[in-house]
């Protein structure tokens, strides 16, 4: 069983497999159309309602989340051959890892915990997306069953500008059921790319840890150890380069999303909207945190070998020099670290206050 099975399962669902036949290409075109069918009208609504900041904030949240996932899928799709080759290379590195059985046992235990985490992470995304889709049903039940309002206005999780009345039958029913598809794409697209990144970071941390212990105990041939370290660094550098646009958009959108979520929770009087926004906000915050956490672990583990002194052994000089430079995952002006995550969360409050001042 490959370490990438869970990731590839998510990617195949959204037509991001390695090899394509004709029906898969049609599927890709349909996916792009589905995003455009909802994304463009929502964007037009945001532009038209720009002076009403509460309406803008309400629709900015689903729009930027969908845009974030769309960038992830497009980045992976355009570089899918490179990503799949990198997965194979990582498997080869793991297969040829240095022979430390104690560490291998510890790594297998950590892999077990990560497998549990991957399932939970995927389920949380599914729950957040489902709560967004079910918002109209929840709204209807509350208004009719509990509050006794039979003349309430139809509710949709999106506001958009179409050439037809989106609240009239049968357009309302059609849009409501059709919107489930881009939500479905977003869940599996984001889950697949996110879990792939977490897997890479965890596997690379394992390799750096094994190298550090082998170098400390001198249980491996020096040339084999140095060669293995070079391969691991090569994979890490390739991963950082491929993930740069995804990291940039993830942190940029995450920063904006936290502000919009906080603003909506403060300003909105709709219980259903607060419920949906809360879970969407928690999901995006969780994404930011785990991206920061795994990238931080990769940066820390990549320099562990440099903590040991091999001053008397000239064979290790190059090894130490390489290990002193940490593998930093970044995108644009964002560094994927826990410090960046803390800065984003701490600055969200002041931006929420600024947005409130526009309404006051």
Automatic annotation (TrEMBL):
InterPro entries on file:
7tm6_olfct_rcpt
Is Lyase there in the keyword field? no
- The protein's gene is named similar to Odorant receptor 9a
Stated family: Belongs to the insect chemoreceptor superfamily. Heteromeric odorant receptor channel (TC 1.A.69) family.
Localization in the cell: Cell membrane; Membrane
Protein name, UniProt field: Odorant receptor
- Superkingdom classification of source: Eukaryota
**Keyword vocabulary terms for this entry:** Membrane, Olfaction, Receptor, Sensory transduction, Transducer, Transmembrane, Transmembrane helix
* Main localization category: membrane
- Organism the protein comes from: Clunio marinus
């Amino acid at each position: 069983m490959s370490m990438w099975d869970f990731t590839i399962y998510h990617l195949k669902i959204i037509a991001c497999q390695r090899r394509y036949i004709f029906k898969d290409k049609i599927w890709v075109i349909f996916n792009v159309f589905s995003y455009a069918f909802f994304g463009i009208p929502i964007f037009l609504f945001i532009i038209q309602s720009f002076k009403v900041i509460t309406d803008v904030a309400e629709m900015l949240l689903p729009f930027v989340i969908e845009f974030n996932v769309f960038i992830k899928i497009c980045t992976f799709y355009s570089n899918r051959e490179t990503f799949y080759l990198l997965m194979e290379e990582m498997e080869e590195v793991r297969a040829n890892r240095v022979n430390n059985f104690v560490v291998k046992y510890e790594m297998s235990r950590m892999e077990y915990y990560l497998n549990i985490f991957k399932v939970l992470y995927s389920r949380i995304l599914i729950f957040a997306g489902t709560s967004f889709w079910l918002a109209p049903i929840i709204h209807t039940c509350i208004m009719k069953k509990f509050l006794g309002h039979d003349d309430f206005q139809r509710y949709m999780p999106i506001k958009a500008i179409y050439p037809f009345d989106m609240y009239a039958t049968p357009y309302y029913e059609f849009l409501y059921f059709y919107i489930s598809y881009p939500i479905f794409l977003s869940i599996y697209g984001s889950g697949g790319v996110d879990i792939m990144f977490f897997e890479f970071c965890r596997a690379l941390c394992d390799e750096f840890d094994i190298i550090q212990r082998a170098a400390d105990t001198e249980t491996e041939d020096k040339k084999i150890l140095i060669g293995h370290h070079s391969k691991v660094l090569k994979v890490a550098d390739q991963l950082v380069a491929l993930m740069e646009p995804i990291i940039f958009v993830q942190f940029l959108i995450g920063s904006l999303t936290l502000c919009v979520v906080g603003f909506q929770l403060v300003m909105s009087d709709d219980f259903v909207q607060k419920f949906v926004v809360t879970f969407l906000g928690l999901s995006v915050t969780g994404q930011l945190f785990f991206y920061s956490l795994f990238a931080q672990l990769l940066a820390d583990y990549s320099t562990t070998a440099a903590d040991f002194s091999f001053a008397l052994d000239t064979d290790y000089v190059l090894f130490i020099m390489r290990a002193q430079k940490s593998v930093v995952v970044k995108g644009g002006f964002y560094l994927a670290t826990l410090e960046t995550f803390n800065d984003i969360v701490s600055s969200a409050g002041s931006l929420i206050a600024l947005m409130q001042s526009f309404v006051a």
